[in-house]
Design goal:
Helix content: 10-25%
CATH class of the largest domain: Mainly Beta
CATH architecture of the largest domain: Beta Barrel
Shape: globular
Structural class: mainly beta
Strand order of the largest sheet: 1-2-7-6-3-8
Strand content: 25-35%
Length: 231
């Protein structure tokens, strides 16, 4: 069995500070911001020369928070409500023999003034995620329009997202600092990040976005944001 050494080429700074509520696939929350900071010796402008010509990039990363838990031959995909088991290789579960993930994100800018910082949108990545490779996305080769999505085509209608009067006031106060916050909250909650078995309408949830704790619950109208508080 061959062993292939790999290096972390950079680390992600993300609006997602905890695993809960991160979109289950990239691109589902276009307002999600992240920055990839390249590490030495890869933090040279030469390494990203020409990358600015592309609109999107592939990121290969490590599931660093779950890697120590090892792999599982079968897992319960959230798309199936957590009630059915599928083979790990038929899913995008984090519990893999090699804890490697793959995401495509929008490239919004590259800063090479002090090292290299690559600005991204639509990332489904946790704060501190180690990146092991970066490649340009090629639309003519990477987009397969007639691809079959298997059981992942099964889904639920997006949740309607509402803001309480208190949350609306807090959004207004945070508008300058976080101009995409309303969009980000709406995109994340519309996908219903609750576990598939969650059915308690009185339970209040919290999710960490940027340096904020977003409090919300679900009722018959959808998801209701009740408060937005500094962490």
């Amino acid at each position: 069995m061959s062993i292939w050494p790999m290096q972390t080429i950079g680390v992600i700074e993300s609006c997602f500070k905890e695993k809960f509520a991160i979109p289950r696939q990239p691109g589902l929350s276009p307002s999600a911001e992240a920055t990839l900071t390249l590490l030495p010796p890869f933090d040279t402008p030469d390494a990203v020369r020409g990358l600015e010509q592309f609109s999107h990039v592939w990121l290969m990363f490590i599931f660093h928070e779950t890697a120590s838990q090892g792999w599982r031959p079968t897992v319960r995909p959230p798309k199936l409500g957590g009630n059915q088991r599928m083979g790990v290789f038929a899913t995008r579960s984090t519990f893999r023999p090699n804890p490697i993930g793959l995401s495509v994100t929008k490239l919004t800018g590259i800063d090479t003034h002090e090292g290299v910082r690559i600005h991204l949108r639509g990332a489904d990545l946790l704060e501190g995620t180690p990146i092991i490779d970066l490649k340009p996305y090629l639309g003519y080769a990477d987009a397969i329009v007639d691809a079959a999505n298997g059981y992942a085509d099964t889904g639920h209608a997006p949740l309607q997202v509402h803001f309480s009067a208190e949350a609306e006031t807090q959004l207004m106060q945070l508008q300058t600092q976080y101009p995409l916050l309303r969009n980000l909250i709406t995109e994340v909650l519309s996908q219903d990040p609750r576990p598939g078995y969650a059915d308690d309408p009185t339970r209040e949830y919290g999710m960490a976005l940027y340096q904020l704790n977003i409090k919300w619950r679900c009722d018959t109208t959808g998801a209701v944001v009740t408060a937005i508080e500094p962490v």
